Amino acid sequence: MTEPERDQSGKVMPHDHPEIGAEYGVIRRIHAQHVIDAQDGTRRISSMAYQASSEPGGGMSVDIEELIHIHGLQPREHLLKGDFLGAVKLLAGAYRELGFLVGYDPLPDNLCHGEVWGNFSKAKKREIQRRVSWFVEIGGVDLA
Amino acid sequence: MTQVRRYDTGTTVVSLRDHRDARRGLSDNARLSFERRDPEWKNVVMRRLAELVALNRGWDGFDAPPVEFHNAYFSVQMLQSICSVETPAPAIVPGYYGDLQVEWHSAGTHIELHVKGPNRVEAWRSTDETGVEGEEIDLSTDFTIVAKWLADLTRAFRDDDRARA
Does the predicted interface ipTM exceed a cut of 0.90? Predict the structure, then answer.
């Protein structure tokens, strides 16, 4: 995939990568801190799992499914590092329909890394939460 | 002779110390004291907030800070103003910039209070009546409407509990 444009500090600038097709899977890892015990006895993912990072111009960190396969990686092994318990998937086209940009942001230790940039309002987060499906399922946990 | 009687009302323990003078047969030094017991939700909340303010920087695998203390403190104050003794304990999750979210999910009702900072709360509720879109309000100091939301949820939660019993 073509390297994205970077600013003077080397940081990838928000962009919508033309080589990430609408049908590409965008994978979001789910951290243990965002799996909650609900009052009705169920377990679920909090909507706070879908939020941009705190750094200026930062987006929501994701992995591009096609790149996981191209690099011959095992999804579960690649995604479930540290305190990440599972992962969810939404197509790039779906994010773009919601007004987000889906870009490529390779990291030294993760060539599959991408970002989703845009306005993560409460409504948008809820919409993402309603549309995602399991990519690496956390047993006994509801998506919403 | 000192007699101590304790009456536990669930939230308040009343102690009655009755110092009797055996010679006079009179209680000349009765003392009444009240001990206020914290509601169960508060114990749960305090433990959880203590965990969240103690998160290591980078807990998310990148550079997220722990929940900021002033957000945790404000959340306790907010919950004290909107929760009753019977309110079920909320779930609390960290955000990525020191913020946090307080949430309840029970029997078709979802309430999320995103504490972005002291006096900066995005409140959202979804019920069977509102549908999945729900209703969203930005709040700063007046949480009356959220108190009502929680009263409704608590009532439904208690009714569910009784039905299951």
Answer: yes
